[in-house]
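RETRY 2/3 - previous attempt timed out on the joint model. Re-submitting the same 224-residue input unchanged.
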Amino acid sequence: AQRVTQPEKLLSVFKGAPVELKCNYSYSGSPELFWYVQYSRQRLQLLLRHISRESIKGFTADLNKGETSFHLKKPFAQEEDSAMYYCALYTGGFKTIFGAGTRLFVKA
Amino acid sequence: EAGVAQSPRYKIIEKRQSVAFWCNPISGHATLYWYQQILGQGPKLLIQFQNNGVVDDSQLPKDRFSAERLKGVDSTLKIQPAKLEDSAVYLCASSQQAGGTYNEQFFGPGTRLTVL
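RETRY 2/3 succeeded.
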């Protein structure tokens, strides 16, 4: 079955602390994975995709096929990083599957 | 460029009533998606259009939900009759095309539906 699991509903860290939002997926094919973010009162938007191997707003994510994971990391969290984060799996063809999301709260 | 537009932003209805949502995608985007997002869950795809054809409606409860995309631009999603469990945010998204290489989806602000 195709599935995306984000085990943490809420993650709270202090400003300047490292942050890691976990994402695990289940897919038999070659996955394309993404992180979408929704800031307060804003629309859901793409943050980064694993193919790009880029760092966006200091965030990076590495696809680990052995562990079927795509965790999102940032070495030093900022208050403006507080948002809802969704991991998403593209299965090719036409379907994108979203995880349930993790709310990140960065405390001052 | 203008983003994806949706209306209304909020809707409150009683169970068994009907409701319709409207979406205008980004100009030139061939693919349009409707998602249902229940509180505490991620978006779940209901239906996906490529131009004005349906490419995936496997998770659309067809006994009460219907959607159309006339002329391959605007789209409407209808619920008739509504049930309590339909209370959710309905998101519309669009992308340049689907299939093959992933194309970024651009989301609208959503319509929050409350069924009493």
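The mean pLDDT of chain A is 93. Closing ticket.
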